[in-house]
Each structure stands twice: as C-alpha cells, then as structure tokens.
Write a structure and sequence with these properties.
It is a single chain. Helix 4 crosses helix 11. Strand 7 and strand 8 form a beta hairpin. The chain is of the alpha/beta class. The longest helix has 32 residues. The chain has two domains: 223 residues, no CATH class; 383 residues, Alkaline Phosphatase, subunit A. The strands form four sheets. Strands 3, 4, 5, 6, 9, 10, 11, 12 and 13 form a nine-stranded mixed beta sheet that branches. A five-stranded antiparallel beta sheet has the order 15-16-17-18-19, with helices on one face. It is built from 23 helices and 19 strands.
Length: 636
C-alpha cells in the first residue's frame, strides 16, 4: 500500500501523528545536542548514531503510544467514524495527543537542564508524587507562559495537518482489513517489549551522546518496566558460594569475628576495647551538597563559608563518595551500609521492613532514634522504610502552624527543620536517653526558595543561593545547640545525600560522586583531616566506632578510622561501579563491563583488571542475594 493511500485510510491519523512525533523528537534531540554540544565530543559517526538510534527509539515509543488508538480504530464502525460528532471528538483527541508531545518536549528541556539525562526513574517518581512535583513546577517556572506557548504550538501543528486529517475521517473500511492492520500494529510493540530495552542501541563512549540517542517517552515506559533488575540476569556473576567466600575476605576487619561457619551468613561480632560512649548522634543529611562547593575542593563562589570553617574544626573526610545520585540512595547507604543494588533503592522497594539499619542497632542499645524530614515523608516511601526499620517519624505533618516560618513545594525551610530537631533532641535528653536524629534537609532543591534577608543572595535565583542558605542555617543550628545540655555529648554529622549534578561524559563520572563528610564534636573529637577513600556505606560502622560500642553487624562498610576501606561503591539505577586503586570498574546491564583509570581527576578507558571485577561482582551480587533472601534483616 502506498504511503499516500495510508494517509487517506482510517489509520492515516496514526501515520500523521507518527510523523509529528518523529519531527518533534528530532527537534528536541537537536536542541539538547546544541545545549550540551561541548560535552558530546561530536564526530560524523557519532552524529549518525545519535540520530539513527534516536529514530529507532522514536519508532518504538510511537508503537507503545498508539496501542489504545489502534484498538479504538478497530472497533468503531464506519457509521459512527464518519459522523460529524465523531469528527469533532477526533479533532479534540488528536490535538490533545499533539499537546502531550509538545508538553513532553518542553518537559524534557527542563529535565535535561536539571539532570542532564532523558526521562528516567526520577520522571516516574514525578508522575507518582504529583503534589510535590506540581507545586515545585509552579514555584520554579513561569507556567502560564509555558502553557500558553504549548497551546499555541499544539494548535498551530494541528492547523497545518487538518486538511490531511479530514481525509482520514471521511474514509471507509472493512472490519477484516482493519483487524489485519491492527494486529500488525500491535505486533510491533509486543516484539519490542520482549526483545528491546534501553541498552539495545547504545553509544557507550559518551554518556551525553547516549542520552541524546534515546527517546524521553520511551524512557518512561522503560523505567516503569525495569524498577528492579535481577542481578544475575543482567550482570556478570559467579557462583553464590564463591561470591560470599570472597565477601567474607572483603568485609573482615581487625576487630570482627564471624559468628557462623555458614558462608552465606555475614553476621559478625564487632568489639572495641573499653566502655561504650553513649554520645548522641545528630546527623544532618544535606540535599545535593557537592564537594565542589567547598573551598577545600576548589569551590570559588564562597557559598559554604560556615561549613568550610566547621570542617576545619571537625573530623573531615576529604576522600568520601556518595553511592548514588538520588536522595533515597544516600539514605539507603547511610543507614543500611549496603551497596547500591540495581533498580530502585531499597527504600522504595516492597518487603523492605525490619532491615539491618544504624537506627535498629542504636535502638537496641537504648537510643531514641528519629527520622526528621522537612517535607511529607510519604514521598519516596521514606516514612514506611524508616518507620519499619528502627526510626520514629517526624515530618511536616508534625509541625505546628506557628513552627513554620517558611515553606515551599518540598517542605519547611532548614531553619524550621533544625528547630524541630532541637525539640526532639531536648525531649529525648529529658527522658534520660541518648538520641540519634537522622535529619533530611530540602532547601537546596529546586525551586531554591528560602526566607529573604538571611543571606546576600535573593531567594529563587538558583542553587548557589540555596546552598548558601543551608550553610547559614547549619551554622545557626550549631550556635543554638551550644545552649543545650546535650551539646557537649553529641556528635554532629554533616553529610550530603548526593551531588548536585551527576552528568558526565563517562558512565559513572567519579567527580560527580565526591561529597563532604564532617563529624563535629569539639569536646569529644580532635579536628583532623582523613584522606582515606570511603563511601556512604562506611558511615554507619565509623559512627559505631566513634561510639566505641560492641555490636553484632551485617554492615558491608568498614570503620574508616580503624580499617581503611580504600574503595568506594558508586552507581546509578543501572550502572554499578567499584572505585579502587585508581581504577573504576563499571558493570552495565547485558553483562557488559567498562574500566577506567583515574589520574588527577581525569577518567580514561583502560584495560580491565580481573581482580577488581571479581570484587565488584562480589559486592553487588551478594547484596542483591541478601536482600531477596531476607539475609539482611535485623532480627534474622
């Protein structure tokens, strides 16, 4: 059948829609390419791949998108299909469909501006947590102008194709012929679903190029489908017994003994000489606090002046890395001391109750343990995870009206959050219990709004102001804390959940995982710099070491001050890596491996080290195994 005949048939509307889809996708891809042109490292071959692979994913996305429309075109009889009322209904649905494409394209621009990637797991979360996201969008962008522009563009596109679309509406067809056409059109997404994923056509040499070669709408379909990746199905693996035997060597420390001869049991008895130190642990986890903001690490904007000073008075870990690029990944690592298993964070997964967390360990030692969040803790399943793993929940719903001086889409400002944390600490102290407060900030998050008059950067002008406001609020919090009885017996922890940006030219850009960790306790800890390489999974064991507490452990991490880890585990929801001995070993789905040398901050592809690969497989395979076999639960 000639293409002209297709355009004039009942299914011609789908053909017109597909052409519009491809044209808009081409336009979005080109705009994003221009925006990050300097990072793409463009060549003729790469340019060809970006647009060829892009067209491939555009066509797959179209096949998914039109499934319900194909069903409708199959069952609707000609009498109704050719009626005047149906014509207007078709106009409306066709225009709405174009509007969705235009809205998606505009959304991709803002999503790329924030994350430098196409839609992914984060976009799926945004579809789920509509209140926070819609409020955030309204506070961040001039939505009336954007919506007006979207409507004008959608209407204009429809006006251009209306004459051709009218020919489709006036066509006639027989059911059997429609059935054959519909079956063929349904076979395409079915085959694609069974055989194609986002790794089927990749540009591994450059992450920016690879993201440009994808289609945002397809990425949403893919993220819904792949919220968890079975480790052995997608990654290089080894015999489970061999993996656990190697893990025992990797996590063994000078002060630990395994309590079982069962190779699959990682439970150890950790001992420290002398009495327990029942210090309080006031932990401030700061949203998107990149190491690069700090003067120590080359920051020149003077937006962390207070924390720069606090760092000099603290146990300052200068070679410390986030395990992931999302808040839930940071929470997972800091509390569970577990590598970032592929897919969604454990914080968001089902059957995550009763996990072996720092909260459960300290609670068993008589601590009052609290998760204190500035927003609504149902977001990202935080309340459920923490509430079922050893923590009391304090979120925005627990703030009285008079306790909120400023709030935005994500929650109350940092000053209000810290004031609430102070109340919780006072209550625990007056009850005679030591406390551990896990505080999660939100001010350093788009729309970057905060109380005016606190710092010299106006609210809602960008991340620099938000970081500087958080810096101000932390300094104010510590000044206020000095007035409380529990101050001299408290470890104040300042750590990031992840960096402000994770985009880079390689699969896992190491620079974009470097974060600060400082432990401030002027009456307890002598200030010094710790240069040992470590990551967030080493936080919980290190805190337990500072508390000098004997305990039973399943933690994957090590006490940084006692047994130097000298390695970091970092990843995204699909790419998982081990950084060790200036080598980064990256595992990708489809059982592909990449290796990079790290020298003076530069990251270059290099020959694979088989020993490092074995250790990388060990960490991630055993972590996945333990979660799925309930081997990482607190009471097991």
């Amino acid at each position: 059948m000639k293409f002209r005949n297709i355009l004039q048939s009942r299914y011609g509307g789908l053909a017109i829609f597909s052409l519009i889809f491809i044209a808009l996708s081409f336009l979005v891809r080109t705009i994003l390419l221009i925006k990050d042109f300097q990072n793409v490292e463009l060549s003729v071959i790469r340019f060809f791949k970006i647009y060829t692979f892009g067209l491939f994913y555009d066509l797959i996305a179209i096949s998914y998108f039109i499934i319900p429309f194909v069903l409708y075109l199959l069952i609707i009889p000609d009498k109704i299909f050719n009626s005047k009322i149906h014509r207007w209904i078709s106009y409306a649905f066709f225009t709405i469909s174009i509007g969705i494409l235009v809205f998606s394209g505009i959304g991709e621009w803002f999503f790329w501006e924030e994350f430098s990637v196409r839609y992914n797991f984060i976009a799926v979360d945004y579809l789920i947590y509509t209140h926070e996201v819609i409020s955030n969008i309204k506070e961040s962008y001039p939505m009336p102008i954007i919506i007006f522009g979207m409507l004008v563009l959608s209407g204009g596109i429809f006006a251009l194709v209306k004459r051709q679309f009218d020919q489709c509406i006036n066509s006639e067809s027989k059911f059997v012929k429609r059935l054959i056409t519909s079956v063929v059109l349904w076979m395409i997404p079915t085959i694609a679903f069974l055989t194609i994923d986002k790794t089927s056509a990749e540009i591994p040499e450059n992450t920016y190029s690879n993201e440009l070669a994808h289609n945002g709408i397809y990425q949403v379909f893919s993220a819904f489908r792949n919220n968890e990746l079975d480790y052995k199905s997608f990654y290089e693996s080894m015999d489970d017994k061999e993996a656990f035997s190697n893990l025992r060597k990797l996590i063994k420390t000078s002060n630990s003994e395994f309590i079982s001869n069962d190779v699959f049991d990682v439970t150890r008895k950790i001992t420290y000489p002398g009495e327990d130190k029942n210090y309080n642990v006031m932990m401030i986890t700061v949203e998107s606090l990149s190491g690069s903001f700090f003067t120590k690490f080359g920051g020149t904007d003077n937006i962390t002046s207070n924390m720069d000073t606090i760092a000099q008075q603290s146990l300052f870990f200068t070679n410390f890395y986030a395990t992931g690029t999302r808040t839930v990944r940071g929470m997972e690592a800091l509390t569970l001391s577990l590598p970032p298993t592929p897919g969604y964070s454990i914080v968001k997964r089902p059957k995550n109750e009763g996990m072996f967390t720092l909260g459960n360990v300290l609670k068993s030692k008589g601590y009052n343990t609290n998760f204190i969040y500035a927003g609504n803790g149902y977001f990202d399943n935080m309340n459920y995870f923490f509430g079922n793993s050893g923590y009391n929940i304090v979120d925005k719903s627990d703030f009285k009206k008079e306790e909120i001086t400023f709030e935005n889409a994500w929650g109350v400002c940092d000053e209000d959050l810290f004031a609430k944390a102070m109340q919780v600490a006072d209550k625990a102290h007056h009850s005679g219990k030591p406390f551990h407060n896990f505080i999660m900030t939100t001010s350093n998050h788009r729309p970057y709004t905060y109380p005016e008059g606190k710092i010299d950067i106006p609210s809602h002008t960008g991340r620099k102001g938000a970081v500087k406001y958080t810096d101000y609020a932390i300094a104010k919090f510590l000044r206020e804390a000095r007035k409380h009885e529990w101050f001299n017996n408290t470890l104040f922890v300042i750590v990031a959940d992840h960096c402000a940006s994770s985009a880079g030219k390689t699969s896992l850009p190491v620079k974009k995982y470097h974060i600060p960790l400082m432990i401030y306790a002027p009456r307890i800890i002598k200030a010094r710099e710790v240069k040992t390489m470590a990551s967030q999974i080493d936080f919980a064991p290190t805190v337990m070491g500072l508390l000098n507490m004997d305990y039973t452990s399943k933690f994957f991490g090590k006490d940084i001050l006692l047994d130097h880890p000298d390695r970091a585990l970092i990843g995204t929801y699909q790419k998982i890596g081990l950084l060790k001995n200036n080598l980064l070993t990256v595992q990708l789905p489809t059982k592909r491996i990449e290796s990079y040398s790290i020298e003076n901050g530069d990251q270059k592809a290099c020959k694979l080290n088989k020993s490092e690969l074995k250790d990388a497989i060990t960490y991630y395979q055993t972590a996945s195994y333990l979660f799925h076999h309930k081997g990482y639960n607190f009471n097991k």
